[in-house]
Structures are given as C-alpha cells and as structure tokens.
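> forwarded from #structure-qc
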C-alpha cells in the first residue's frame, strides 16, 4: 500500500517538537517507532497532513533512576526495556517488553507508543499499572503528570491533547520485599497480540510471607487495561499461600470485562484466573529473592 501524502518534520529537541505540535494541532501525528502509525497510514485509518518524527529527540530516549524512582524516556524501545535490570518488582515490565512482537518490532516499538495508542491488549500497560506508573505529558511551556490509571479512556483513546507529547514514564521507588511477574496468553508465542495478559506486583512484610500490598493489572479483557482492585485488596495482610492466590484469581476473573471479540467471555475469564495464579506465584518468588 502507498502512504498518503504528508509533510515530514524532524525536530531535534523536545521543545521544538512541542512547538510543532502546538502549530499543527490535530492535523499532525507523532512518529516514534512507527510500528502502529505506519500501518494506520497505509490503511488510511489516519490521514494527517503533518508527521512529526521524534527519532532525533534524544532527551526522551533511555532511562535513569534515583532514590525516588525510575524514569523512562517515552522513546525507549521495548528491546532496551527487555534487557534492563529494573529489580525484582520492575522485572514485570522487562518480561512484558520481551514479549512485544518479534525482535525486529521490539527494536523499533517504543514504550510511549505502546501507551499512546491506548489499545486494550498493549503489552506494557498492565505492568506499568501494577507498578503505579505515571506519565509526563509535555507541551509548549507546560507539562502535567498523571497516573497511568487515569490515562486511558476507551479503545484507542486517551486523555492527551493534540499538542501534547508524552515525554516520560515515571515508576516510583518500591520498598524492599517487592516482586513482580507478567503472564500473557496468545495464539502464538511470538508476533501475537494478547488474548489475556496479567501483571502482578506484591510487597511482603519482614517475615517474607505476609502480603502488605498487591496490585494486579489485566490486559485485553476490558475496553482499556485495568486494575483488579478487589482481587488485590483481598490479599492485604494475608499469607502468600496458593489458596489465597486462587481466591484472588477468582476475584480478578469476576472483575474482568471481556467483550468476546477474539475469544468467548467465559474463556477469557478462565484464563484471567489461571494467569493471575501464575503471576502472583512468580511475583511472590521474586519478592523473596
């Protein structure tokens, strides 16, 4: 398929990119890795008159950390995240990034793009929800930071203004005794969009058995990636036992909101239950490392 006609813009800084988006507004689309946008352009699903490429904007590439958290530039690729040492809890994100598409796609796909497209099956969204991530949205002379849990609106829709650029994803520093794990179900092991995905992060008390906090996030089983609040709350101050994990998993399955698009709602709920048990078990093991 031939791409539609558009003007190609290549800013060298984030400020320059923000100025372009302020000038063009909803006539423009941002290009980072291009794994989603190029397909949409070929299908004529979007027809911007301007494309603003971010591949020269180095300030939103890579990641760093301090005593307060980890800061991921929105142009950081899935491949880079998959290879990063993000700790026992942060490994939930690395595990998800390692399952994005194929090696070729992971070398191009960015964490920002994975979120901005706002797809229910986005692989990196559930881990970031489980890690209590927030996103920084930048525009000319202004920025705002909001929790990722407040970012998604509906399939393909989020809260960003046309002139905003996601510049950073912030992961707060979690206490010692935390662990995370990601589980995904697809028809194939690679190049597959999730049918169901589950990310779990748990925090243990000093005895290494009592759960002091938990977050369970689900992907592809609701209009947007979602937190299973009731399932996580039911684990508070309970022992990390298989029985309690099963109970939490059953609650998570009830909280899921599958639409029955790629498989039946009954099957999706069954898989939520099974993957939640696996994710919680592996998160507990990681927390004890």
């Amino acid at each position: 398929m031939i791409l539609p006609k558009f003007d190609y813009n290549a800013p060298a800084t984030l400020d320059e990119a923000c100025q372009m988006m302020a000038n063009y507004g909803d006539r423009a689309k941002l290009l980072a890795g291009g794994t989603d946008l190029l397909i949409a352009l070929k299908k004529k699903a979007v027809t911007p008159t301007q494309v603003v490429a971010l591949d020269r904007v180095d300030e939103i590439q890579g990641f760093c950390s301090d005593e307060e958290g980890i800061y991921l530039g929105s142009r950081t690729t899935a491949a880079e995240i998959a290879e990063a040492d993000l700790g026992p809890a942060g490994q939930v994100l690395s595990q998800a990034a390692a399952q994005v598409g194929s090696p070729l796609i992971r070398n191009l796909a960015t964490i920002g793009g994975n979120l901005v497209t706002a797809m229910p099956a986005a692989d990196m969204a559930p881990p970031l929800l489980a890690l209590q991530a927030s996103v920084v949205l930048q525009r000319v002379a202004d920025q705002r930071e909001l929790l990722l849990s407040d970012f998604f609106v509906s399939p393909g829709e989020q809260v960003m203004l046309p002139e905003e650029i996601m510049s950073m994803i912030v992961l707060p520093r979690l206490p010692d005794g935390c662990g995370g794990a990601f589980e995904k179900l697809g028809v194939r092991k690679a190049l597959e969009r999730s049918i169901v995905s589950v990310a779990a992060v748990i925090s243990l008390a000093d005895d290494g058995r009592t759960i002091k906090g938990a977050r369970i996030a689900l992907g592809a089983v609701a209009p947007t990636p979602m937190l299973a609040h009731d399932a996580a709350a039911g684990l508070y101050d309970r022992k990390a036992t298989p029985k309690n994990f099963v109970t939490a998993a059953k609650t998570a399955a009830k909280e899921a909101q599958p639409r029955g698009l790629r498989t039946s709602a009954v099957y999706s709920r069954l898989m939520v239950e099974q993957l939640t048990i696996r994710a919680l078990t592996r998160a507990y093991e990681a927390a004890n490392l």
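QC bot note: The mean pLDDT is 95. The first strand starts at residue 7 and ends at 9.
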